[in-house]
Every structure is written in C-alpha cells, then in structure tokens.
Specification:
The protein starts with a strand and ends with a strand. It is 21% helix and 27% strand. The chain has a single domain, classed as Metallo-dependent phosphatases (Purple Acid Phosphatase, chain A, domain 2). By secondary structure, it is α/β, with parallel strands linked by helices. The structure holds fe (ii) ion (FE2).
C-alpha cells in the first residue's frame, strides 16, 4: 500500500495534469493541513482514492472557490478528534491546528491540546482490546513538543502530542506546519518505535501489504539516510 501525504504548500507536481501519471499507484492520501480544500478535492477526484485530513492554522472557516462555498473538502474524511479504521485495517487518528499565537482559527493553548488528545484515549484503549494495538497513524498539523518543532511561539510543538506518541507508540506520526528551507532541518525522527515525518510539500510512504493483512504495520519506504534520522527517547 502506498500513502501520499501532503501538507502546507501547493505543488504543480500534484495540482497539475501529470498527477495520475506520477501517483498512479497511490492507495490512500493524507492531508496534514494548511492546504486549500480545492487542492484536496483535486487529489481525491484525480487519483480516486480516499483522503483523510486535519486542518492547519491557515485554514478558513469557509472557503470560496470557483465551484462554490466550502466548509470542508468534499469527499474527504476529517480526522480531527476522530479515530478511524479504513478498509485496509489502518487505524488513524488526528488533531487539527497548532499552538495559539493570535486570535486566528484552529489555534489552541497547550491545555486545550491536552483536552483534545485525552478525548482520543478511550477509543485508543478500545482499539487495543479489539485489534491488539492502539493506533497506526497519528495525523496532526503541528509537531510534538521539541521534536521537529521550532522555538518561536507559532511553531512550538505540542506537549500532548509527544505524550501520545510516547504512551501509545503509533507506527507513524505525520505532521506539517514546519516549513523546510534548510537541508539541516530534521524531517524524520524515530521517537521510540514511532516514525515521525514532517510532510511539508509531499511524502510517499509505502507499507508492507503482508503485514497489513495480518493486522500489523510495517513501513517499507521511505528509507532514510543516517543523517536524516534522529533518535529520541
Ligand atoms: Fe501551519
């Protein structure tokens, strides 16, 4: 199974006529925020795949497009505060937004983020009982606290996300929000057994179909250079 994850910036490679040719083998798409609804709808309609998403801090309550008014991207599945299991047995959960830094939408204090994350816990516990694991993919816009985040207030990581990763150890944590302009910025980190990826732009992630069929989760690609992979405990 191949996942196409997108976040933060629109790319002509995706929002263009060659998307089918380039991404014909994608089975599932995930949006990590700060992308317009028409962009997500384009991916859904051109690739004909399910798309799960969370909103970023630059999302609008209402988006006016040439196709009309949108309060959400048509055909996409909002993961905010939700736990979903798709047809391939992947268990996904998400939290939208980032650290509050002004009066804009989809911003939360660290305390509010704790409340949002804790609201997921009963469903994660139930997953452990029913499926033998808490969560496969955690999807957020902001990064966890002091993991692939930055020091300025708008880009500080979320403490509750770090706690969730540490306690429930999803196989994959996908986030956006941190724009990558320098080669030295970390874009992937192993945090315990959780592989954390800053999606900024797009990332393709391939999962092992045999492990998925057994209700497990094994990531085949992307493979990382040693300089890209930080290990944190
Ligand atoms: Fe953002």
């Amino acid at each position: 199974m191949k996942i196409l994850a997108v976040s933060d910036i629109e790319l002509p490679l995706i929002y263009g006529p060659n998307i089918r040719e380039r991404f014909h083998d994608v089975d599932l798409a995930i949006g990590c925020g700060d992308l317009p609804y028409y962009y997500l709808e384009y991916i859904i309609s051109m690739l004909d795949v399910p798309l799960y998403y969370v909103r970023g801090n630059h999302a609008h309550k209402t988006e006016v497009t040439c196709f009309g008014e949108r309060k959400y991207p048509w055909g996409a599945d909002d993961l905010h505060r939700r736990v979903r299991q798709n047809a391939s047995n992947l268990i996904m959960a998400g939290i939208q937004g980032c650290q509050r830094y002004n009066t804009g939408p989809y911003q939360y204090t660290q305390g509010q983020m704790w409340a949002l994350v804790l609201s997921l816990v009963p469903k994660l516990m139930l997953n452990k009982l029913v499926h033998g694991r808490f969560l496969d993919i955690f999807v957020t816009h902001a990064p966890p606290w002091q993991l692939q985040d930055m020091e300025d207030l708008p880009h500080q990581g979320i403490k509750a996300f770090r706690w969730l990763d540490k306690v429930f150890q999803p196989a994959l944590h996908l986030h956006g929000h941190i724009h990558i302009y320098r080669q030295v910025s970390p874009v992937q980190t192993m945090f315990g057994s959780t592989r954390m990826i800053n999606v900024f732009g797009f990332r393709e992630i391939t999962l092992d179909d045999h492990s998925l069929a057994r209700g497990k989760f094994k990531i085949l690609t992307p493979e990382y250079k040693s300089t890209e992979l930080l290990k944190q405990k």
